[in-house]
């Protein structure tokens, strides 16, 4: 929202949009009210690139004033990893959103804060755990790609390596102009935000590995 009275955009949902979500879900058993939430998300996501924003798939925390997004294909363990952060770091960690934050790309003018080039925002679409903090947001300090393993090693990767991992996690609009804009936003994301690859189990050592790499803390 740009002010308390004027929304950035407005959307409406039709029966046709709900039925589209039912078809995309490959099941007719979902209740209409749940499918309506998906239709709302899609309608908003289609509008966001024009506002220099996009929906991203990842579990997002705030730690010491910065946001960190943990992303992976569904079921890989991103929610498990932020659960470990909460277990071992307690109240120092705030969950911004558990599944689909909105990333806002701030105009990089001469007076812009370089640390706030991308802002991660909470949304109501918080995954099956329902983890979210309403209206929470923070400058994005890093993106961590979570993979299952035993080594508990986290290393920064270059944009070229990061791109194939991140492309499936960003919402790609159906509108061609919005899709092109989204690709521009992805380019800005991987050029300005550090991306890390984490090989981890579900131990405290996994938290140490990701926190050390992303936050510079031993």
Roughly what is the average pLDDT, rounded to an integer?
A: 89
Number of helices: 6
Distance from N terminus to C terminus (CA atoms, Å) equals 38 Å
Total DSSP E strands:
9
Pairing-aware structural class of the strands and helices? alpha+beta
Q: Sheet bearing the most strands, described?
A: 9 strands, mixed
Order of SSEs = HHEEEHEEEEEHHEH
Shape: globular
User: Which range does the strand content fall in?
Assistant: 15-25%
Low-confidence stretches: none
Instruction: Report helical residue fraction.
Output: 25-40%
Rg result = 17 Å
Question: What key phrases describe this protein's structure?
Answer:
218 residues; single chain; 6 helices
Q: What can you tell me about this protein's structure?
A:
- The chain is an alpha+beta fold.
- It is built from six helices and nine strands.
- The chain has helices at residues 15-24, 32-47, 78-89, 159-166, 176-192, 204-215; strands spanning 53-55, 59-63, 66-71, 93-97, 102-105, 118-121, 137-148, 153-157, 195-200.
- The N and C termini lie far apart (38 Å).
- The model has no long low-confidence stretch (mean pLDDT 89).
Task: Please provide a brief summary of the model.
With 218 residues, the protein is α+β, with helices and mostly antiparallel strands. It has six helices and nine strands; from the N terminus they run ααβββαβββββααβα. Strands 1, 2, 3, 4, 5, 6, 7, 8 and 9 form a nine-stranded mixed β-sheet that branches.
